[in-house]
Amino acid sequence: MKTYTVYILKCADNSYYTGVTNDIDRRLYEHENAISPSCYTARKRPVILVFCEHFEDINDAIEFEKQVKGWTRKKKEAIISENWDKLKELSVCKNITSHTNFDKL
């Protein structure tokens, strides 16, 4: 059965790149060797694999990749450090205009 991997790379400039692949070894080689010169990571090498999660269903993998791409740096760093419980805390809206802060206005 084929597996799909959602991965996060830490780039030389300390930015993160999130992707999905069905062959993590090939994809890492492509990033490390700038096979696609227009790719985000080509100008930000070297890159380090800091996170990967495997899926059996490509749709689940794509959905998770899209979710992670929309996350803040702190949320990405929480899963990189395997601190999944911190995601809930980081998801709480702290804007003063949030409905949870209505009584503080």
SSE series? EEHEHHH
The CATH topology assignment is: GIY-YIG endonuclease
Q: Level of helix content?
A: 25-40%
As for the number of domains, it is: 1
- Number of helices, where a helix is a run of at least 4 consecutive DSSP H or I residues: 4
Unreliable stretches covering 5 or more consecutive residues: none
Apparent shape: globular
- Strands of the widest sheet, in order across it, are 2-1-3
Average of per-residue pLDDT values: 90
> How does the major sheet shape up?
3 strands, antiparallel
What share of the residues does DSSP label as strand, in percent?
15-25%
Structural class: alpha+beta
| CATH class placement | Alpha Beta
Number of strands: 3
As a whole number of angstroms, the C-alpha radius of gyration is: 17 Å
Query: Any idea what the CATH architecture is?
Result: 3-Layer(aba) Sandwich
- End-to-end distance: 55 Å
Family: Belongs to the UPF0213 family.
Domain GIY-YIG: 2-78
Protein name: GIY-YIG nuclease family protein
Organism: Pedobacter miscanthi
Explain this structure.
It is a single chain. The chain has one domain: 3-Layer(aba) Sandwich (GIY-YIG endonuclease). It has 4 helices and 3 strands; from the N terminus they run E-E-H-E-H-H-H. The protein has helices at residues 24-32, 58-69, 73-80, 86-91; strands spanning 4-10, 16-21, 48-55. It has a 3-stranded antiparallel beta sheet with strand order 2-1-3, with helices on both faces. A hairpin with a 5-residue loop joins strand 1 and strand 2. The model has no long low-confidence stretch (mean pLDDT 90).
